[in-house]
Amino acid sequence: MRSLLIQRYATIVVVFCTIGTSMVQPAVAGIISTETAIELENREMLIDRISSVLAQEDVRNMLITMGVDPNQASKRVDALTNDELQALHTNLDQMPVGATGVVEVVGIVAIVLIILELLNVTNFFSEF
Known about the structure:
By secondary structure, the protein is an all-alpha fold.
């Protein structure tokens, strides 16, 4: 009786293992062009540069006083298109090195908020 029960359990295990191995999907990978790889790398560089500015203590304090969550601002920067990131990065390049002042920070935040408002991501300006 006991060996019959073990045989049934073994049969059930073998059936489930056979069914489980047939459900494995193959991995599919595509080839990306060199231009796409460069664009992805440039996008990451731009996001890192803008995020480093947003991570500065004075910028974070200004965002908080304006009612913007710094973590939400970082997520919004990640959601920007490549053209919007390039425009924001261009404005960062026009600032003096190491001398990010209050006016520049307000300008950066305003540009980000305007872009997000135009894309209907937020309703920041409609609240006023």
